[in-house]
Design a protein that fits this description.
The complex is a heterodimer. Chain A is mainly alpha-helical. Chain A contains nine helices and no strands. Chain A is elongated, with a radius of gyration of 18 Å. Chain B is mainly α. Chain B is 72% helix and 0% strand. Chain B has seven helices and no strands. Classes of the chains: A mainly alpha, B mainly alpha. At the A-B interface, helix 2, helix 3, helix 4, helix 7 and helix 9 of A face helix 1, helix 2 and helix 6 of B.
Chain lengths: 177, 173
């Protein structure tokens, strides 16, 4: 079963307190949540922590999940909140750790070197631009949804996406179309 | 979208949405779930409410018979319980029993007073429901969580107020 299908019975059982059912949800959805957290944070350890936090928070809130949205959408929202909460709580550590990725700002156009790995380039983006690019570009959020979940204006969201695209195009040594 | 997507769009679009966690995170998640007495909470809460309701009912009876007031410290048992609203049938039954007792006491009041209390209760319950809906959409909000618990307590506070207000009426029965 892929994470795009909604295991309704399992969700209902987990909401009633069935840990085994909740583990099934974890098995099904954790790769997507980890992927989201990894792209948003740009750090493996932070992504692991946020994935854990997301599922613990989901467990606590599951009794109130009303299925007016998809479970995966609801879980995504929790994960984004966890990432943003962690960022607020660990602001200093989070910000100083990014340069340790060792990624250059851009590929050297004249070096003939292969383009930088796109994942690493995304991880090296400034935080605001990275968050918007990940949500809109990879996970298909609309600008309105992204703006709401990140707590920014929609115009800011669009500007951040433009900025992210410019930085990535440069970092990956891509030709603009 | 055109037939020749931007190279950047193509690269981003090819990224997998799912990435397997490097290790098995479930044991760490599960360890934290077991610390939360999720399944026990409705039972404990139902028991607490049932005990509070039974205690209050007994005290009402005692007070009616003895013509005394209910000790404040015991009254607060019913209003200081921090709680969630689980769907456990036992909790729902206990909750209904408390509300039934409240309704019976409410009936002892003058119609005008009763109408004001019912209006207040409706406001509290509407606020509680609105916050519950907001929490469903934003389950991580600590502010909403606090407001939700606060309105829950407000409802019990109102029950408590009615209990006190009906005390003289009950002693006249």
């Amino acid at each position: 079963m892929d994470s795009s299908s909604e295991p309704t019975d399992t969700i209902v059982a987990a909401a009633a307190g069935d840990v085994v059912a909740f583990e099934r949800l974890y098995r099904q959805f954790s790769p997507r949540i980890y992927g989201l957290c990894l792209r948003l944070t740009g750090q493996r350890e932070a992504a692991e922590d946020c994935t854990q936090e997301s599922f613990v928070a989901a467990w606590r809130a599951l009794a109130r999940f009303e299925r007016r949205s998809r479970f995966s959408t609801w879980l995504h929202r929790i994960a984004v909140h966890c990432v943003l909460s962690r960022r607020k709580g660990l602001r200093f550590a989070y910000e100083v750790s990014e340069p340790a990725m060792g990624l250059p700002e851009r590929a050297d156009p004249g070096s003939g070197a292969p383009p930088l790995d796109v994942e690493r380039a995304i991880a090296a983006l400034p935080e605001g631009a990275r968050h918007v690019l990940v949500l809109v570009g990879i996970y298909g959020y609309s600008h309105a949804e992204t703006a709401e979940v990140l707590g920014i204006a929609e115009g800011t969201c669009k500007a951040q996406l433009h900025r992210a695209r410019q930085l990535l195009t440069a970092a990956l040594g891509l030709e603009t179309s | 979208m055109n037939n020749h997507p931007d190279p950047l769009d193509r690269l981003i679009g090819n990224l997998p949405k799912e990435v397997a966690p490097p290790g098995n995170l479930w044991p760490r998640v599960a360890a934290r779930l077991s610390r939360r007495p999720r399944q026990a909470t409705p039972m404990a809460l139902a028991a607490a409410i049932a005990v509070a309701a039974a205690g209050l009912a007994s005290l009402f009876t005692w007070a009616v018979l003895e013509g005394r007031s209910v000790p404040r410290v015991i009254q607060t048992v019913a209003v200081t319980t921090s709680f969630e609203e689980p769907r456990d049938p036992k909790y729902v039954l206990a909750r209904d029993a408390v509300e039934k007792t409240f309704r019976e006491r409410l009936a002892l009041l003058e119609p005008a007073t009763r109408a004001k209390i019912e209006a207040s209760l409706a406001v509290i319950q509407r606020a509680h429901e609105d916050i519950r809906k907001a929490l469903a959409a934003d389950p991580q909000s600590p502010a909403l969580e606090q407001l939700w618990e606060s309105t829950g307590r407000d409802e019990f506070d109102l029950y408590d107020s009615v209990v006190q207000a009906t005390q003289p009426a009950m002693t006249r029965i």
